[in-house]
Design goal:
The strands form two sheets. The chain has a five-stranded mixed beta sheet with strand order 3-4-5-6-7. It has 532 residues and is mainly alpha-helical.
Length: 532
């Protein structure tokens, strides 16, 4: 009997260590990824703004958007030409969004804007200008998506209508898929002109030599000024014909990149914390070396998956928050709020999956969700406070590497928040447990009859039954919706995920805010207050 009690005690202590390790990992992860999510969320916002034509974060309304360009009129007699020209506008918008998204991720403060959007409509030389963090124009370029091939595009740039760009030494951005071909074609022509120039010079034909020299100089200048755009011809045409999918594809690319970084961060944190826990248990004789290695590898893999899901989800959520017309909602995107909300959603989903699989009871599910939610929220708040404190410390500083300080501050803040939350929650549980024990001792001291004790047990079972019935009343429907959501994550079908989430929302007696992309757009543009 004593041996069983010892084993039970060991199992309980092991479970506490594992839960503590998971909580610590979660807190460290929230702190370590807050800046990552904020920067990538800003990149997502850039692509949302490219579609809508409105950047609520900066208070800017663009002259053109992917959506407005796609709605441009087309003359049936010149359809191909019209579409090609309009695809050029789409390319300009995509180029700005791509540049700005990358610089949001890097944190450089630089932005590329169309000259039309800064009051220089139909600028004769420039389509884009680059503005630094102080608002100064530091570069400019002309974008030319012309010709059906690299050689044809280069030939057009050598024609008279494009001479003004050479005379003013303007950088010319060309399609990403044409750039290397145009460079190669230019090199071939330069080599050929060089041979011709040498031949006529040897013959003493100065007039022809001067003409060839002029062509050679112009071609070298064109080659020097050619710049590779981030957009291909195919992408420009796709953006013109399918603006929603084009913007969404760019957003998902950013979300995926953030998710992959989050997966690496989650795996690294888990490797350290889980490794220590399993090494301790191995030295205590609770695990063999093989089991310790397996457990650590399993925890790292699990943390990588969760890290991807949380970071990717929080990045997309952050981008949406930054795109809202409410300054207060935009402000939430600069805190740990997106990461905290998505973490709660993932943790709650994992607990419910365990419940539906019969691994835990309804009461255990509610208890586990309560503990995780309490600690996660406190850890997120600590991360925000830590980041803000670090920003205050480095304000006005020019110390190298200062951009890392807010990240470290958020990490430390998250860990402190976790420690406080864990201690607070543990105290609450201890107080409750002591109260129950005191109640039981009092019943024993008062020599309560067996019937009363059985009645108390019956009440307990009845409460568990009520909880289980409450959660499992619609278990079949719940399982269907959760299966659909998990399947959508694997194939990337957003609509299925939305359908599943909305289904669960309705089962809980609530009404979804929106069911389609059109309803979502209408909600974002409306003045309606969204209560989260």
């Amino acid at each position: 009997m004593a041996e069983n009690k010892d084993n039970a005690t060991i199992d309980e202590e092991k479970k506490k260590r594992e839960n503590g390790a998971k909580g610590l990992q979660g807190a460290a992860f929230l702190g370590a990824t807050e800046d990552l999510i904020e920067r990538h969320g800003g990149a997502v916002k850039e692509h949302i703004a490219s579609y809508t034509g409105v950047d609520n974060e900066l208070g800017i309304k663009y002259k053109r958007s992917l959506k407005s360009v796609s709605e441009s009129k087309v003359n049936p007699e010149y359809k191909e030409t019209n579409i090609k020209q309009q695809a050029g506008f789409s390319a300009e918008i995509k180029e700005s969004a791509n540049f700005n998204a990358e610089n949001r991720i890097k944190g450089t403060g630089r932005r590329k804007v169309r000259t039309d959007d800064i009051g220089r409509v139909n600028d004769p030389l420039l389509d884009h200008v680059v503005i630094d963090g102080n608002g100064n124009i530091v570069a400019g370029s002309q974008m030319k998506f012309v010709g059906k091939s690299p050689s044809e595009a280069l030939k057009k740039l050598q024609s008279k209508p494009y001479q003004k760009y050479l005379d003013n030494n303007v950088d010319i951005e060309v399609p990403k898929d044409f750039f290397s071909g145009m460079q190669a074609e230019a090199d071939a022509q330069i080599k050929s002109l060089g041979k011709q120039l040498k031949a006529v010079t040897e013959k003493g034909d100065t007039k022809t030599a001067a003409k060839l020299q002029e062509q050679l100089d112009a071609l070298k200048k064109i080659k020097k000024n050619l710049k590779e755009s981030s957009v291909t011809n195919k992408q420009a045409l796709f953006a013109r014909e399918h603006p929603t999918l084009s913007a969404l594809g760019s957003e998902l690319d950013v979300v995926n990149r953030a998710g992959l970084k989050g997966a690496g961060t989650g795996a690294a944190i888990s490797a350290g914390i889980s490794g220590i826990v399993n090494l301790y248990e191995m030295h205590q004789g609770e695990l063999s070396p093989k089991e310790a290695f397996f457990n650590t590898a399993r925890d790292v893999a699990s943390s990588a998956v969760n890290g991807y899901m949380i970071t990717a989800g929080a990045t997309g959520f952050s981008g949406v928050l930054k795109s809202c017309n409410s300054v207060k909602i935009q402000g939430l995107a600069k805190t740990s709020f997106p990461g905290t909300i998505v973490t709660l959603a993932v943790d709650t989903t994992n607990v419910l999956i365990k419940y539906f699989n019969g691994e835990i009871t309804g009461a255990e599910a509610l208890k586990e969700m309560g503990e995780r939610d309490f600690v996660t929220i406190s850890s997120g708040a600590g991360a925000t406070i830590g980041s803000a404190a670090a920003m205050h410390i480095v304000a006005g500083s020019a110390v190298a590497g200062q951009t890392m300080v807010p990240v470290i501050g958020a990490l430390i803040g998250g860990l402190v928040g976790y420690a406080i939350a864990s201690a607070g929650y543990a105290s609450l549980l201890t107080a409750l447990q002591e109260k129950e024990l005191a109640h039981e001792r009092r019943l024993v001291i008062e020599k309560a009859c067996r019937e009363h004790i059985e009645m108390i047990n019956a009440y307990r079972e009845e409460i568990n039954g009520l909880i289980n019935n409450y959660l499992s009343e619609n278990i079949a429907s719940m399982q269907t919706f959760f299966t659909g959501i998990l399947a959508s994550f694997k194939v990337g079908e957003v609509e299925k995920a939305v359908y599943g989430v909305n289904g669960i929302t309705m089962l809980m007696g609530q009404k979804p805010l929106c069911s389609t992309m059109e309803e979502f757009d209408a909600l974002m543009y409306s003045d309606k207050t969204i209560k989260l």
